[in-house]
Amino acid sequence: MSAAQDSGTGELITLPAEAQDQLFREARTANTFTAEPVTDAQVRAIYELVKFGPTSMNQQPLRVVLVRSQEARDKLVPLMTGRNQEKTAKAPLVAILGADLDFHDELPKLVPFMENPRAIYENPAVREESARFNTAIQIGYFILGVRAAGLAAGPMIGFDRAGVDKEFFADGRHSALCVVNIGRPGPDAWMGRLPRLAYEEVVTSV
Amino acid sequence: MSAAQDSGTGELITLPAEAQDQLFREARTANTFTAEPVTDAQVRAIYELVKFGPTSMNQQPLRVVLVRSQEARDKLVPLMTGRNQEKTAKAPLVAILGADLDFHDELPKLVPFMENPRAIYENPAVREESARFNTAIQIGYFILGVRAAGLAAGPMIGFDRAGVDKEFFADGRHSALCVVNIGRPGPDAWMGRLPRLAYEEVVTSV
What whole-number distance in Å separates Cα of residue A41 and Cα of residue A146? Predict the structure, then answer.
Protein backbone atom coordinates (compact mmCIF):
# COMPACT_ATOMS: atom_id res chain seq x y z
CA MET A 1 0.00 0.00 0.00
CA SER A 2 1.49 3.32 -1.00
CA ALA A 3 1.56 6.28 1.33
CA ALA A 4 -1.03 7.94 -0.92
CA GLN A 5 -3.53 5.12 -0.42
CA ASP A 6 -2.69 5.06 3.24
CA SER A 7 -3.64 8.69 3.81
CA GLY A 8 -7.21 8.22 2.71
CA THR A 9 -7.15 11.50 0.80
CA GLY A 10 -4.47 10.80 -1.81
CA GLU A 11 -6.97 9.94 -4.54
CA LEU A 12 -8.03 13.60 -4.64
CA ILE A 13 -4.47 14.48 -5.64
CA THR A 14 -4.15 13.78 -9.36
CA LEU A 15 -0.37 14.01 -9.34
CA PRO A 16 0.90 10.40 -9.50
CA ALA A 17 1.50 8.90 -6.05
CA GLU A 18 5.17 8.28 -6.83
CA ALA A 19 5.65 11.96 -7.63
CA GLN A 20 3.90 12.95 -4.39
CA ASP A 21 6.25 10.65 -2.50
CA GLN A 22 9.35 11.96 -4.29
CA LEU A 23 8.52 15.62 -3.58
CA PHE A 24 6.79 15.51 -0.22
CA ARG A 25 6.05 12.27 1.60
CA GLU A 26 9.29 10.35 1.28
CA ALA A 27 11.64 13.29 0.71
CA ARG A 28 13.59 14.40 3.74
CA THR A 29 15.98 17.17 4.70
CA ALA A 30 19.43 15.59 4.48
CA ASN A 31 22.23 16.23 6.96
CA THR A 32 24.81 13.93 5.33
CA PHE A 33 25.58 13.21 1.68
CA THR A 34 27.51 10.79 -0.47
CA ALA A 35 30.57 12.05 -2.36
CA GLU A 36 28.76 11.96 -5.70
CA PRO A 37 29.10 15.38 -7.35
CA VAL A 38 26.14 17.54 -8.29
CA THR A 39 26.77 18.85 -11.80
CA ASP A 40 26.05 22.26 -13.27
CA ALA A 41 23.80 20.46 -15.75
CA GLN A 42 21.69 19.17 -12.85
CA VAL A 43 21.40 22.65 -11.34
CA ARG A 44 20.46 24.03 -14.74
CA ALA A 45 17.78 21.38 -15.13
CA ILE A 46 16.39 22.26 -11.69
CA TYR A 47 16.30 25.95 -12.56
CA GLU A 48 14.71 25.36 -15.97
CA LEU A 49 11.89 23.56 -14.15
CA VAL A 50 11.30 25.75 -11.10
CA LYS A 51 11.64 29.05 -12.98
CA PHE A 52 8.02 28.55 -14.05
CA GLY A 53 6.69 28.82 -10.49
CA PRO A 54 4.66 32.03 -10.13
CA THR A 55 5.86 35.17 -8.34
CA SER A 56 4.17 38.52 -7.69
CA MET A 57 4.14 40.51 -10.91
CA ASN A 58 6.60 37.95 -12.32
CA GLN A 59 9.36 39.44 -10.15
CA GLN A 60 11.60 36.36 -9.92
CA PRO A 61 13.90 37.92 -7.29
CA LEU A 62 15.71 34.65 -6.40
CA ARG A 63 19.43 34.59 -7.15
CA VAL A 64 21.63 31.53 -6.61
CA VAL A 65 25.35 31.40 -5.90
CA LEU A 66 26.91 27.95 -6.31
CA VAL A 67 29.87 27.57 -3.98
CA ARG A 68 32.16 25.58 -6.30
CA SER A 69 35.74 26.52 -5.45
CA GLN A 70 37.56 25.41 -2.33
CA GLU A 71 38.42 29.04 -1.68
CA ALA A 72 34.74 30.00 -1.62
CA ARG A 73 33.86 27.00 0.55
CA ASP A 74 36.58 27.98 3.00
CA LYS A 75 35.03 31.43 3.26
CA LEU A 76 31.50 30.13 3.75
CA VAL A 77 32.00 27.35 6.30
CA PRO A 78 33.13 29.55 9.22
CA LEU A 79 30.12 31.81 8.59
CA MET A 80 27.74 28.91 9.23
CA THR A 81 26.35 28.35 12.74
CA GLY A 82 27.32 25.40 14.93
CA ARG A 83 26.68 22.02 13.33
CA ASN A 84 25.86 23.62 10.00
CA GLN A 85 29.61 24.12 9.58
CA GLU A 86 30.35 20.42 9.29
CA LYS A 87 27.38 19.77 7.01
CA THR A 88 28.38 22.64 4.74
CA ALA A 89 32.04 21.56 4.70
CA LYS A 90 31.14 18.06 3.48
CA ALA A 91 28.20 18.50 1.10
CA PRO A 92 28.90 17.85 -2.60
CA LEU A 93 27.34 21.17 -3.53
CA VAL A 94 26.41 24.22 -1.48
CA ALA A 95 24.11 26.91 -2.89
CA ILE A 96 23.45 30.32 -1.38
CA LEU A 97 19.89 31.44 -2.12
CA GLY A 98 19.49 35.19 -2.00
CA ALA A 99 17.06 37.95 -2.88
CA ASP A 100 17.86 40.58 -5.50
CA LEU A 101 16.67 43.65 -3.59
CA ASP A 102 16.78 45.62 -6.85
CA PHE A 103 14.77 43.10 -8.84
CA HIS A 104 12.69 45.97 -10.20
CA ASP A 105 15.46 46.78 -12.69
CA GLU A 106 14.50 43.57 -14.55
CA LEU A 107 10.75 44.22 -14.60
CA PRO A 108 10.56 46.02 -17.97
CA LYS A 109 11.58 42.79 -19.69
CA LEU A 110 9.63 40.49 -17.33
CA VAL A 111 6.27 42.28 -17.63
CA PRO A 112 6.64 43.81 -21.10
CA PHE A 113 2.95 44.71 -21.37
CA MET A 114 3.19 47.17 -18.45
CA GLU A 115 4.24 50.76 -18.81
CA ASN A 116 7.07 51.57 -16.37
CA PRO A 117 6.59 48.64 -13.95
CA ARG A 118 9.81 49.66 -12.24
CA ALA A 119 8.04 52.67 -10.72
CA ILE A 120 5.77 50.42 -8.63
CA TYR A 121 8.78 49.41 -6.56
CA GLU A 122 10.60 52.74 -6.25
CA ASN A 123 10.05 52.66 -2.48
CA PRO A 124 13.01 50.64 -1.09
CA ALA A 125 11.10 49.31 1.93
CA VAL A 126 8.20 48.06 -0.19
CA ARG A 127 10.67 46.62 -2.69
CA GLU A 128 12.73 44.80 -0.07
CA GLU A 129 9.69 43.26 1.58
CA SER A 130 8.41 42.04 -1.79
CA ALA A 131 11.85 40.70 -2.73
CA ARG A 132 12.10 38.73 0.51
CA PHE A 133 8.55 37.37 0.24
CA ASN A 134 8.89 36.23 -3.36
CA THR A 135 12.39 34.87 -2.91
CA ALA A 136 11.08 32.73 -0.05
CA ILE A 137 8.30 31.40 -2.27
CA GLN A 138 10.93 30.58 -4.90
CA ILE A 139 13.05 28.87 -2.23
CA GLY A 140 10.05 26.58 -1.69
CA TYR A 141 9.99 25.81 -5.42
CA PHE A 142 13.77 25.32 -5.48
CA ILE A 143 13.77 22.80 -2.62
CA LEU A 144 11.10 20.78 -4.43
CA GLY A 145 13.08 21.13 -7.67
CA VAL A 146 16.15 19.59 -6.01
CA ARG A 147 13.95 16.67 -4.98
CA ALA A 148 12.51 16.46 -8.50
CA ALA A 149 16.08 15.88 -9.69
CA GLY A 150 16.35 12.84 -7.42
CA LEU A 151 18.57 14.72 -5.00
CA ALA A 152 18.17 15.73 -1.37
CA ALA A 153 18.26 19.29 -0.05
CA GLY A 154 19.53 20.44 3.32
CA PRO A 155 18.28 24.02 3.69
CA MET A 156 19.76 26.06 6.55
CA ILE A 157 19.06 29.52 7.93
CA GLY A 158 21.68 29.31 10.67
CA PHE A 159 24.51 31.49 9.35
CA ASP A 160 26.02 34.95 9.73
CA ARG A 161 23.87 36.81 7.26
CA ALA A 162 25.86 40.04 7.23
CA GLY A 163 29.05 38.02 6.76
CA VAL A 164 27.63 35.95 3.90
CA ASP A 165 26.27 39.05 2.20
CA LYS A 166 29.64 40.74 2.49
CA GLU A 167 31.59 37.77 1.12
CA PHE A 168 29.20 36.60 -1.59
CA PHE A 169 27.00 39.59 -2.47
CA ALA A 170 29.52 42.41 -2.31
CA ASP A 171 27.41 44.66 -4.54
CA GLY A 172 25.16 45.44 -1.57
CA ARG A 173 21.95 44.83 -3.52
CA HIS A 174 21.42 41.22 -2.50
CA SER A 175 20.47 39.49 0.73
CA ALA A 176 21.22 35.83 1.49
CA LEU A 177 18.11 34.15 2.91
CA CYS A 178 19.05 30.48 2.94
CA VAL A 179 22.03 28.18 2.34
CA VAL A 180 21.21 24.77 0.88
CA ASN A 181 23.37 21.66 0.83
CA ILE A 182 22.58 19.46 -2.16
CA GLY A 183 23.51 15.87 -2.98
CA ARG A 184 22.52 12.27 -2.56
CA PRO A 185 21.71 11.31 1.04
CA GLY A 186 24.59 9.70 2.93
CA PRO A 187 24.63 7.43 6.00
CA ASP A 188 22.18 8.37 8.75
CA ALA A 189 21.12 11.34 6.63
CA TRP A 190 18.13 12.22 8.79
CA MET A 191 16.42 11.62 12.09
CA GLY A 192 12.82 10.42 12.40
CA ARG A 193 10.13 12.51 10.76
CA LEU A 194 9.06 15.37 13.04
CA PRO A 195 5.35 15.93 13.80
CA ARG A 196 3.19 18.01 11.52
CA LEU A 197 0.30 20.20 12.59
CA ALA A 198 -3.11 18.62 12.09
CA TYR A 199 -5.37 19.98 9.34
CA GLU A 200 -7.71 21.42 11.97
CA GLU A 201 -4.85 23.36 13.55
CA VAL A 202 -3.96 25.04 10.26
CA VAL A 203 -7.11 25.38 8.19
CA THR A 204 -10.32 27.06 9.31
CA SER A 205 -13.44 28.09 7.40
CA VAL A 206 -15.45 31.28 7.79
CA MET B 1 7.70 15.44 -28.04
CA SER B 2 7.03 16.41 -24.44
CA ALA B 3 8.13 19.72 -23.03
CA ALA B 4 10.66 17.80 -20.92
CA GLN B 5 12.37 16.32 -23.96
CA ASP B 6 12.17 19.67 -25.67
CA SER B 7 14.13 21.47 -22.97
CA GLY B 8 17.23 19.36 -23.41
CA THR B 9 17.71 19.14 -19.65
CA GLY B 10 14.56 17.31 -18.59
CA GLU B 11 16.23 13.91 -18.45
CA LEU B 12 18.22 15.07 -15.41
CA ILE B 13 14.93 15.55 -13.60
CA THR B 14 13.81 12.14 -12.38
CA LEU B 15 10.28 13.29 -11.55
CA PRO B 16 8.06 12.00 -14.38
CA ALA B 17 7.66 14.54 -17.21
CA GLU B 18 3.89 14.62 -16.78
CA ALA B 19 4.31 15.59 -13.13
CA GLN B 20 6.78 18.32 -14.09
CA ASP B 21 4.24 19.65 -16.57
CA GLN B 22 1.39 19.51 -14.08
CA LEU B 23 3.28 21.40 -11.38
CA PHE B 24 5.45 23.80 -13.35
CA ARG B 25 5.57 23.82 -17.13
CA GLU B 26 1.92 23.64 -18.10
CA ALA B 27 0.42 25.02 -14.87
CA ARG B 28 -0.60 28.64 -15.01
CA THR B 29 -1.93 31.30 -12.68
CA ALA B 30 -5.68 31.40 -13.35
CA ASN B 31 -7.72 34.59 -13.49
CA THR B 32 -11.07 32.94 -14.29
CA PHE B 33 -12.61 29.69 -13.06
CA THR B 34 -15.48 27.35 -13.82
CA ALA B 35 -18.36 27.10 -11.32
CA GLU B 36 -17.23 23.64 -10.14
CA PRO B 37 -16.89 23.72 -6.34
CA VAL B 38 -13.65 23.01 -4.52
CA THR B 39 -14.48 20.69 -1.63
CA ASP B 40 -13.10 20.64 1.89
CA ALA B 41 -11.88 17.11 1.13
CA GLN B 42 -9.75 18.50 -1.71
CA VAL B 43 -8.27 21.18 0.53
CA ARG B 44 -7.57 18.57 3.18
CA ALA B 45 -5.82 16.36 0.62
CA ILE B 46 -3.69 19.33 -0.49
CA TYR B 47 -2.74 20.08 3.10
CA GLU B 48 -1.98 16.45 3.93
CA LEU B 49 0.50 16.50 1.04
CA VAL B 50 2.19 19.88 1.41
CA LYS B 51 2.47 19.73 5.19
CA PHE B 52 5.57 17.60 4.65
CA GLY B 53 7.51 20.42 2.98
CA PRO B 54 10.37 21.51 5.25
CA THR B 55 10.41 24.70 7.34
CA SER B 56 13.04 26.18 9.65
CA MET B 57 13.06 24.20 12.88
CA ASN B 58 9.79 22.61 11.75
CA GLN B 59 7.96 25.87 12.49
CA GLN B 60 5.03 25.41 10.07
CA PRO B 61 3.74 28.98 10.58
CA LEU B 62 1.28 28.88 7.64
CA ARG B 63 -2.38 29.24 8.55
CA VAL B 64 -5.22 29.04 6.03
CA VAL B 65 -8.66 30.64 6.21
CA LEU B 66 -11.15 29.28 3.68
CA VAL B 67 -13.67 31.95 2.76
CA ARG B 68 -16.76 29.73 2.52
CA SER B 69 -19.74 31.86 3.54
CA GLN B 70 -21.27 34.59 1.42
CA GLU B 71 -20.96 36.91 4.40
CA ALA B 72 -17.20 36.36 4.59
CA ARG B 73 -16.84 36.73 0.82
CA ASP B 74 -18.73 40.02 0.98
CA LYS B 75 -16.26 41.26 3.57
CA LEU B 76 -13.19 40.17 1.63
CA VAL B 77 -14.01 41.36 -1.90
CA PRO B 78 -13.99 45.12 -1.16
CA LEU B 79 -10.60 44.68 0.55
CA MET B 80 -9.07 43.37 -2.67
CA THR B 81 -7.30 45.79 -5.03
CA GLY B 82 -8.67 46.73 -8.45
CA ARG B 83 -9.27 43.77 -10.73
CA ASN B 84 -8.60 41.32 -7.91
CA GLN B 85 -12.09 42.20 -6.65
CA GLU B 86 -13.87 40.61 -9.59
CA LYS B 87 -11.60 37.54 -9.58
CA THR B 88 -12.16 37.03 -5.86
CA ALA B 89 -15.91 37.56 -6.16
CA LYS B 90 -16.23 34.81 -8.77
CA ALA B 91 -13.73 32.11 -7.77
CA PRO B 92 -15.23 28.82 -6.47
CA LEU B 93 -12.97 28.98 -3.41
CA VAL B 94 -10.89 31.77 -1.90
CA ALA B 95 -8.22 31.02 0.70
CA ILE B 96 -6.40 33.57 2.84
CA LEU B 97 -2.84 32.41 3.54
CA GLY B 98 -1.40 33.97 6.66
CA ALA B 99 1.51 33.68 9.07
CA ASP B 100 1.04 32.74 12.70
CA LEU B 101 3.33 35.33 14.28
CA ASP B 102 3.23 33.37 17.54
CA PHE B 103 4.09 30.03 15.94
CA HIS B 104 6.62 29.47 18.74
CA ASP B 105 3.81 28.43 21.05
CA GLU B 106 3.51 25.22 19.00
CA LEU B 107 7.23 24.39 18.95
CA PRO B 108 7.33 22.17 22.06
CA LYS B 109 5.18 19.63 20.23
CA LEU B 110 6.79 20.18 16.80
CA VAL B 111 10.41 19.72 17.94
CA PRO B 112 9.89 17.44 20.94
CA PHE B 113 13.58 16.58 21.22
CA MET B 114 14.54 20.20 22.02
CA GLU B 115 14.48 21.67 25.46
CA ASN B 116 12.44 24.89 25.52
CA PRO B 117 12.50 25.64 21.76
CA ARG B 118 10.02 28.45 22.38
CA ALA B 119 12.79 30.53 23.97
CA ILE B 120 14.66 30.78 20.66
CA TYR B 121 11.88 32.98 19.32
CA GLU B 122 11.14 35.14 22.36
CA ASN B 123 12.27 38.23 20.41
CA PRO B 124 9.14 39.40 18.54
CA ALA B 125 11.09 40.95 15.64
CA VAL B 126 13.13 37.77 15.06
CA ARG B 127 9.98 35.68 15.39
CA GLU B 128 7.98 37.78 12.95
CA GLU B 129 10.70 37.71 10.30
CA SER B 130 11.00 33.95 10.64
CA ALA B 131 7.22 33.52 10.50
CA ARG B 132 6.99 35.57 7.31
CA PHE B 133 9.92 33.78 5.66
CA ASN B 134 8.68 30.29 6.42
CA THR B 135 5.07 31.09 5.62
CA ALA B 136 6.19 32.31 2.20
CA ILE B 137 8.09 29.05 1.63
CA GLN B 138 4.93 27.17 2.61
CA ILE B 139 2.90 29.34 0.22
CA GLY B 140 5.19 28.03 -2.52
CA TYR B 141 4.41 24.46 -1.45
CA PHE B 142 0.70 25.25 -1.20
CA ILE B 143 0.48 26.68 -4.73
CA LEU B 144 2.13 23.53 -6.08
CA GLY B 145 -0.19 21.42 -3.92
CA VAL B 146 -3.23 23.06 -5.51
CA ARG B 147 -1.79 22.14 -8.89
CA ALA B 148 -1.07 18.60 -7.66
CA ALA B 149 -4.82 18.31 -7.00
CA GLY B 150 -5.52 19.09 -10.65
CA LEU B 151 -6.72 22.59 -9.79
CA ALA B 152 -5.44 26.04 -10.70
CA ALA B 153 -4.32 28.70 -8.23
CA GLY B 154 -4.62 32.44 -8.60
CA PRO B 155 -2.39 33.91 -5.88
CA MET B 156 -2.74 37.64 -5.21
CA ILE B 157 -0.90 40.09 -2.99
CA GLY B 158 -2.97 43.10 -4.00
CA PHE B 159 -5.26 43.64 -1.03
CA ASP B 160 -5.66 45.84 2.04
CA ARG B 161 -3.53 43.89 4.47
CA ALA B 162 -4.53 45.75 7.61
CA GLY B 163 -8.17 45.39 6.60
CA VAL B 164 -7.91 41.65 5.93
CA ASP B 165 -6.04 41.09 9.19
CA LYS B 166 -8.71 42.99 11.08
CA GLU B 167 -11.60 41.09 9.49
CA PHE B 168 -10.12 37.60 9.35
CA PHE B 169 -7.36 37.48 11.98
CA ALA B 170 -8.95 39.49 14.77
CA ASP B 171 -6.70 37.90 17.41
CA GLY B 172 -3.85 40.18 16.31
CA ARG B 173 -1.32 37.36 16.16
CA HIS B 174 -1.65 36.58 12.45
CA SER B 175 -0.69 38.41 9.28
CA ALA B 176 -2.27 37.74 5.88
CA LEU B 177 0.44 37.40 3.23
CA CYS B 178 -1.47 36.16 0.20
CA VAL B 179 -5.00 35.50 -1.01
CA VAL B 180 -5.43 32.59 -3.41
CA ASN B 181 -8.34 31.87 -5.72
CA ILE B 182 -8.71 28.13 -6.35
CA GLY B 183 -10.71 26.19 -8.91
CA ARG B 184 -10.71 24.77 -12.40
CA PRO B 185 -9.59 27.27 -15.05
CA GLY B 186 -12.44 29.03 -16.86
CA PRO B 187 -12.59 30.74 -20.26
CA ASP B 188 -9.54 32.85 -21.14
CA ALA B 189 -8.09 31.96 -17.75
CA TRP B 190 -4.66 33.40 -18.50
CA MET B 191 -2.65 35.53 -20.87
CA GLY B 192 0.47 34.30 -22.68
CA ARG B 193 3.33 33.00 -20.56
CA LEU B 194 5.51 35.85 -19.34
CA PRO B 195 9.31 35.72 -19.83
CA ARG B 196 11.53 34.01 -17.33
CA LEU B 197 15.07 35.04 -16.41
CA ALA B 198 17.78 33.01 -18.12
CA TYR B 199 19.83 30.58 -16.05
CA GLU B 200 22.88 32.81 -16.42
CA GLU B 201 20.97 35.78 -15.01
CA VAL B 202 20.04 33.88 -11.87
CA VAL B 203 22.78 31.34 -11.12
CA THR B 204 26.48 32.13 -10.74
CA SER B 205 29.39 30.05 -9.47
CA VAL B 206 32.21 31.13 -7.21
Answer: 12
